[in-house]
Specification:
Number of domains: 3
Structural class: alpha/beta
CATH superfamily of the largest domain: Exopolyphosphatase. Domain 2
CATH class of the largest domain: Alpha Beta
CATH architecture of the largest domain: 2-Layer Sandwich
Strand order of the largest sheet: 8-7-6-9-11-10
Number of helices: 22
Helix content: 40-55%
Radius of gyration: 25 Å
Strand content: 15-25%
Distance between the termini: 34 Å
Length: 491
């Protein structure tokens, strides 16, 4: 790929600094506007909200730690040439009696901090969920150090956003009164906020503490995917795990990959709150989102046309370009292999098939002995915005089939229906055939066609391209046809 194409695939870098109750974090984003990539991410655990929970004031030591972090961030941004910087402050600064004086110090450093109201914080987090899961409906719950935000979402709208003083820095004191009194305190906060939810709705969970809970639950369930984004937990298992974890002492918990010691120490309190929410809101399922407040700010700035793009396809297009694969060629190959998709009248996953096609083509640029491993790493471990668990598994299955492997690890196979598994395998086998025959050259793609005619899978090739047919092509055509229950034919 020429350098110009790489530049066109990426938007200018943009940074967001989130001054939260527990941490102050800098994230620098780049890549496609619809599926921004994290180029830099660091945080300082200052526990700014601890003093607010105790006496209503931002503590001097915590404030100094935040200001020191901001000084570092400012220098980093200057060195990296990042011009667009958004600084937002949430519950701790909002609730502190000396919050305004603190923000004045932040402004004196050259930043333009924005203090979010409780409703703005709730709605912005909800926009992050809507950006990651287009069309999502239900309730978004964002747990931070100082507060818990709840807001209803319905496809592309948000309503009834509320903020309650139930952040992780406050939960320990509330729980010290006992489980019954703690549940009553949460219930009173919900009642005061005039908050109710329809039973069986989806509860979308946002925030570092809740993602830490998701990682804990995934380990307990021996989940084969270790990225908590998009992890779905049924409320029965969620309540069972939350109740058991809430009974644990933080110091008795063993360290776990992906969970910091600070998050681990607050896990029992997080679990206790989640257990109460599950009992009171009665959700149909729990879904964990890595996108929240910061990504909500990005989503709010997207033009309507950009919001309408598919985040998975946008992110995949940018990713494969880094491996020398043009998204245009990916689209051509997806068109050429459409015969491997379910017939008309059956639900088709064209956006996912396109993403799988591009991922298979990118994998073909990697050394052959590494391709089995990257099926796991790229499909299951890399964070794909817009891909649910089933879709991640289908990406991995397609990539395995593209290498000629139809054996799927049982733990993965158990996560998707057999029909979806076989469909994804067909995608991978079809891309394998296309790549072997045509090397994905536009002239060979336009000079040939793969079709289903009755009980036959037919590869039609113009005479000028007949020399491209070899034993390997015939073998791949036969494998795909057999998988589809058809007879192969070369024409």
């Amino acid at each position: 790929m020429v350098p110009q194409e790489r530049r066109l695939a990426r938007s200018p870098m943009r940074a967001i600094i989130d001054i939260g109750s527990n941490t102050v974090r800098l994230v620098i984003y780049g890549g496609p506007v619809r599926a921004p990539a994290v180029l830099h991410n660091e945080k300082v655990t200052a526990r700014l909200g601890k003093g607010v929970a105790e006496n209503g004031l931002l503590g001097e030591r915590a404030s100094a730690a935040v200001l020191a972090a901001l000084a570092r961030y400012r220098t980093l941004l200057q060195l990296k040439g990042v011009d667009r910087v958004d600084v937002v402050a949430t519950a701790a600064v909002r609730d502190a009696a000396n919050g305004a004086a603190f923000l004045a110090k932040v402004a004196a450093m050259g930043f333009s901090p924005r203090l979010l109201s409780g409703e703005e914080e709730a709605v912005t987090s909800a926009h992050g969920v809507l950006g990651a899961f287009p069309g999502a409906t239900g309730v978004v719950g964002d747990l931070g150090g100082g507060s818990l935000e709840l807001v209803d979402i319905d496809g592309d709208t948000c309503r009834h956003g509320v903020s309650m003083p139930l952040g992780t820095l406050r939960l320990g004191r509330l729980r010290a009164t006992g489980d019954r009194a703690f549940a009553q305190s949460v219930g009173k906060a919900l009642k005061k906020a005039d908050w109710t939810a329809e039973p069986d709705t989806t509860l979308w969970l946002v925030g570092g503490s809740l993602r830490a809970f998701a990682r804990f639950a995934m380990a307990r369930l021996e989940w084969p995917i270790d990225d908590p984004h998009g992890f779905v937990l049924d409320p029965v298992n969620g309540l069972r795990i939350a109740r058991n974890l809430a009974r644990c002492k933080a110091e008795t918990l063993r360290p776990m990959p992906g969970i910091s010691s600070a998050r681990m120490s607050s896990l029992p309190d997080t679990a206790a709150l989640l257990a109460v929410l599950i009992r009171r809101l009665k959700p149909g399922k729990l879904v964990f989102s890595a996108w929240g407040l910061r990504e909500g700010l990005l989503y709010e700035d997207m033009a309507a046309g950009v919001r309408g793009q598919d985040p998975l396809v946008a992110g995949m297009s940018a990713f494969v370009q880094e491996h020398g694969i043009s998204p245009q060629i990916g689209a051509m190959v997806a068109g050429w292999t459409v015969a491997a998709a379910p017939p008309a009248g059956i639900e088709r996953r064209e956006r996912l098939r396109l993403a799988a096609t591009m991922l298979c083509l990118a994998a073909s640029t990697v050394e052959p002995n590494l391709r089995g491993d990257i099926a796991r790493d790229w499909a299951l471990r890399k964070r794909w915005i817009g891909a649910a668990t089933t879709e991640r598994v289908m990406l991995a299955v397609a990539m395995l089939a593209h290498t000629g492997r139809l054996d799927v690890p049982p733990a993965l196979a158990a996560l998707i229906p057999v029909t979806a598994l076989r469909e994804a395998q067909a995608w991978g086998l079809a891309v394998r055939l296309c790549r072997r025959f045509s090397t994905c050259a536009p002239q060979s793609l336009s000079g040939s066609q793969l079709t289903v005619e009755g009980a036959r899978l037919v590869l039609s090739v113009q005479p000028a391209l007949a020399a491209l047919i070899n034993d390997g092509v015939e073998r791949d055509l036969r494998a795909l046809a057999t998988h589809l229950g058809l007879k192969p034919e070369l024409r």
